[in-house]
Protein backbone atom coordinates (compact mmCIF):
# COMPACT_ATOMS: atom_id res chain seq x y z
CA UNK A 1 0.00 0.00 0.00
CA UNK A 2 1.34 3.44 -0.87
CA UNK A 3 2.16 5.87 1.90
CA UNK A 4 -0.89 7.96 2.70
CA UNK A 5 -0.79 11.61 1.72
CA UNK A 6 -0.80 13.60 4.97
CA UNK A 7 -3.84 15.75 5.69
CA UNK A 8 -2.60 18.90 7.32
CA UNK A 9 -4.24 21.92 8.87
CA UNK A 10 -3.03 23.82 5.83
CA UNK A 11 -5.30 21.86 3.48
CA UNK A 12 -8.31 23.87 2.35
CA UNK A 13 -11.52 23.05 4.24
CA UNK A 14 -10.16 20.05 6.18
CA UNK A 15 -13.67 19.45 7.53
CA UNK A 16 -15.36 19.95 4.18
CA UNK A 17 -17.68 17.55 2.39
CA UNK A 18 -16.37 14.50 0.52
CA UNK A 19 -15.76 14.86 -3.16
CA UNK A 20 -15.29 18.61 -2.81
CA UNK A 21 -12.44 18.68 -5.32
CA UNK A 22 -14.31 16.99 -8.15
CA UNK A 23 -17.92 17.78 -7.38
CA UNK A 24 -18.63 14.03 -7.53
CA UNK A 25 -19.70 11.76 -4.69
CA UNK A 26 -18.00 8.36 -4.97
CA UNK A 27 -19.65 5.11 -3.93
CA UNK A 28 -17.94 4.72 -0.58
CA UNK A 29 -19.44 1.31 0.11
CA UNK A 30 -18.00 0.00 -3.16
CA UNK A 31 -14.63 1.57 -2.40
CA UNK A 32 -14.60 -0.10 1.01
CA UNK A 33 -15.45 -3.48 -0.51
CA UNK A 34 -12.68 -3.12 -3.07
CA UNK A 35 -10.24 -1.94 -0.40
CA UNK A 36 -11.12 -5.05 1.56
CA UNK A 37 -9.83 -7.03 -1.44
CA UNK A 38 -6.51 -5.12 -1.21
CA UNK A 39 -7.34 -2.80 -4.12
CA UNK A 40 -4.89 0.04 -3.46
CA UNK A 41 -6.39 2.29 -6.16
CA UNK A 42 -9.81 2.03 -4.51
CA UNK A 43 -8.30 2.78 -1.12
CA UNK A 44 -6.49 5.84 -2.50
CA UNK A 45 -9.81 7.10 -3.88
CA UNK A 46 -11.51 6.40 -0.56
CA UNK A 47 -8.78 8.32 1.26
CA UNK A 48 -9.07 11.32 -1.05
CA UNK A 49 -12.85 11.35 -0.69
CA UNK A 50 -13.03 11.09 3.10
CA UNK A 51 -9.74 12.29 4.60
CA UNK A 52 -10.90 15.88 5.18
CA UNK A 53 -13.95 14.76 7.13
CA UNK A 54 -11.87 12.23 9.05
CA UNK A 55 -9.30 14.90 9.91
CA UNK A 56 -12.12 17.24 10.97
CA UNK A 57 -13.51 14.72 13.46
CA UNK A 58 -10.04 13.91 14.79
CA UNK A 59 -9.35 17.62 15.29
CA UNK A 60 -12.61 18.10 17.17
CA UNK A 61 -11.60 15.41 19.64
CA UNK A 62 -7.85 15.93 20.12
CA UNK A 63 -7.92 19.71 19.45
CA UNK A 64 -4.38 19.77 18.13
CA UNK A 65 -3.61 19.84 14.37
CA UNK A 66 -0.45 17.73 14.58
CA UNK A 67 -2.16 15.13 16.78
CA UNK A 68 -5.18 15.15 14.45
CA UNK A 69 -2.93 14.37 11.48
CA UNK A 70 -1.48 11.37 13.31
CA UNK A 71 -4.93 10.15 14.33
CA UNK A 72 -6.05 10.47 10.70
CA UNK A 73 -3.19 8.28 9.54
CA UNK A 74 -3.86 5.72 12.27
CA UNK A 75 -7.56 5.64 11.39
CA UNK A 76 -6.88 5.02 7.70
CA UNK A 77 -4.39 2.27 8.47
CA UNK A 78 -7.11 0.61 10.55
CA UNK A 79 -9.65 1.16 7.74
CA UNK A 80 -7.25 -0.46 5.25
CA UNK A 81 -6.77 -3.48 7.52
CA UNK A 82 -10.45 -3.97 8.31
CA UNK A 83 -12.29 -2.70 5.21
CA UNK A 84 -13.41 -6.24 4.46
CA UNK A 85 -15.50 -6.21 7.64
CA UNK A 86 -17.68 -3.30 6.55
CA UNK A 87 -21.35 -4.33 6.42
CA UNK A 88 -23.64 -1.90 4.60
CA UNK A 89 -26.60 -3.51 6.36
CA UNK A 90 -25.40 -2.19 9.73
CA UNK A 91 -24.77 1.44 8.85
CA UNK A 92 -23.48 3.90 6.32
CA UNK A 93 -19.85 3.96 5.11
CA UNK A 94 -19.28 7.33 6.75
CA UNK A 95 -20.65 6.12 10.07
CA UNK A 96 -18.30 3.12 9.98
CA UNK A 97 -15.27 5.24 9.00
CA UNK A 98 -15.97 7.96 11.57
CA UNK A 99 -16.58 5.42 14.34
CA UNK A 100 -13.04 4.11 13.76
CA UNK A 101 -11.72 7.68 13.69
CA UNK A 102 -13.50 8.65 16.90
CA UNK A 103 -12.14 5.58 18.69
CA UNK A 104 -8.58 6.33 17.58
CA UNK A 105 -8.93 9.98 18.62
CA UNK A 106 -10.29 9.08 22.06
CA UNK A 107 -7.46 6.58 22.52
CA UNK A 108 -4.97 9.33 21.70
CA UNK A 109 -6.55 11.71 24.24
CA UNK A 110 -6.57 9.02 26.92
CA UNK A 111 -2.93 8.20 26.22
CA UNK A 112 -1.98 11.87 26.55
CA UNK A 113 -3.94 12.18 29.79
CA UNK A 114 -2.26 9.07 31.20
CA UNK A 115 1.15 10.49 30.33
CA UNK A 116 0.30 13.76 32.06
CA UNK A 117 -0.85 11.90 35.15
CA UNK A 118 2.43 9.96 35.27
CA UNK A 119 4.41 13.18 34.97
CA UNK A 120 2.59 14.78 37.90
CA UNK A 121 2.37 11.75 40.21
CA UNK A 122 5.71 12.41 41.90
CA UNK A 123 4.85 16.02 42.72
CA UNK A 124 1.48 15.05 44.11
CA UNK A 125 2.71 12.09 46.17
CA UNK A 126 3.77 14.24 49.14
CA UNK A 127 0.56 16.26 49.18
CA UNK A 128 -2.18 15.44 51.71
CA UNK A 129 -5.22 13.70 50.26
CA UNK A 130 -8.12 15.93 49.41
CA UNK A 131 -11.04 13.67 50.29
CA UNK A 132 -13.59 15.94 48.61
CA UNK A 133 -11.64 15.90 45.35
CA UNK A 134 -11.19 12.13 45.55
CA UNK A 135 -14.91 11.63 46.08
CA UNK A 136 -15.69 13.83 43.09
CA UNK A 137 -13.26 11.87 40.89
CA UNK A 138 -14.81 8.56 41.93
CA UNK A 139 -18.28 9.92 41.29
CA UNK A 140 -17.27 11.16 37.82
CA UNK A 141 -15.75 7.78 37.00
CA UNK A 142 -18.91 5.98 38.08
CA UNK A 143 -21.06 8.38 36.04
CA UNK A 144 -18.93 7.78 32.93
CA UNK A 145 -19.31 4.03 33.46
CA UNK A 146 -23.08 4.41 33.77
CA UNK A 147 -23.28 6.45 30.56
CA UNK A 148 -21.21 3.89 28.62
CA UNK A 149 -23.47 1.13 29.91
CA UNK A 150 -26.60 3.08 29.04
CA UNK A 151 -25.36 3.73 25.49
CA UNK A 152 -25.26 -0.02 24.93
CA UNK A 153 -29.03 -0.16 25.49
CA UNK A 154 -29.66 2.02 22.43
CA UNK A 155 -30.20 0.63 18.97
CA UNK A 156 -27.20 0.69 16.65
CA UNK A 157 -28.66 3.53 14.56
CA UNK A 158 -29.36 5.56 17.72
CA UNK A 159 -25.83 4.95 19.00
CA UNK A 160 -24.20 6.17 15.80
CA UNK A 161 -26.38 9.29 15.67
CA UNK A 162 -25.75 10.15 19.34
CA UNK A 163 -22.01 9.49 18.99
CA UNK A 164 -21.68 11.80 16.01
CA UNK A 165 -23.82 14.57 17.49
CA UNK A 166 -22.51 14.60 21.05
CA UNK A 167 -19.07 12.95 20.96
CA UNK A 168 -18.10 14.07 17.47
CA UNK A 169 -19.58 17.55 17.87
CA UNK A 170 -21.43 17.52 14.55
CA UNK A 171 -24.65 19.41 13.83
CA UNK A 172 -27.88 17.62 13.00
CA UNK A 173 -27.41 18.55 9.35
CA UNK A 174 -23.87 17.16 9.30
CA UNK A 175 -25.03 13.96 11.03
CA UNK A 176 -27.75 13.57 8.41
CA UNK A 177 -25.19 13.95 5.61
CA UNK A 178 -22.80 11.43 7.14
CA UNK A 179 -25.51 8.84 7.69
CA UNK A 180 -27.17 9.45 4.32
CA UNK A 181 -30.45 10.43 6.00
CA UNK A 182 -32.98 13.26 5.72
CA UNK A 183 -32.34 15.88 8.41
CA UNK A 184 -35.69 15.12 10.04
CA UNK A 185 -34.84 11.43 10.35
CA UNK A 186 -31.45 12.22 11.88
CA UNK A 187 -33.09 14.54 14.43
CA UNK A 188 -35.62 11.84 15.30
CA UNK A 189 -32.87 9.26 15.88
CA UNK A 190 -30.97 11.66 18.10
CA UNK A 191 -34.11 12.64 20.04
CA UNK A 192 -35.28 9.05 20.53
CA UNK A 193 -31.77 8.01 21.51
CA UNK A 194 -31.56 10.75 24.15
CA UNK A 195 -34.96 9.78 25.56
CA UNK A 196 -33.91 6.15 25.79
CA UNK A 197 -30.56 7.15 27.29
CA UNK A 198 -32.32 9.29 29.89
CA UNK A 199 -34.62 6.40 30.82
CA UNK A 200 -31.68 3.98 31.08
CA UNK A 201 -29.89 6.37 33.42
CA UNK A 202 -33.03 6.88 35.49
CA UNK A 203 -32.98 10.65 34.95
CA UNK A 204 -36.28 12.45 35.42
CA UNK A 205 -37.82 14.48 32.60
Number of helices: 8
Question: In total, how many beta strands?
Answer: 0
What CATH calls the topology of the largest domain is Rna Polymerase Sigma Factor, Chain: A
- The stretches of 5 or more residues where confidence is low (pLDDT under 50) are 8-23, 131-135
Q: How much of the sequence is in beta strands?
A: under 5%
Helices and strands, in N-to-C order? HHHHHHHH
Helix content: 55-70%
Structure description:
- This protein has 205 residues and is mainly α.
- The protein folds into 2 domains: 1-119, Orthogonal Bundle (Rna Polymerase Sigma Factor, Chain: A), CATH 1.10.1740.10; 133-205, Arc Repressor Mutant, subunit A (Orthogonal Bundle), CATH 1.10.10.
- It is 69% helix and 0% strand.
- It is built from 8 helices and no strands.
- α1 packs across α2 (40-62), α4 (93-125) packs across α6 (156-167) and α7 crosses α8.
- The N and C termini lie far apart (52 Å).
- The model is unreliable at 8-23 and 131-135 (pLDDT under 50).
Amino acid sequence: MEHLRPVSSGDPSPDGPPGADTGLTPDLADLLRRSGRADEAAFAELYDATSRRVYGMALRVVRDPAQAEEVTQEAFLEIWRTAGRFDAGKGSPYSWILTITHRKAVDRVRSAEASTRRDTTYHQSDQPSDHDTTAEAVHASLEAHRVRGALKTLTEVQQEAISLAYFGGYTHTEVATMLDLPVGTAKTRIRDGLIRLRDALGVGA
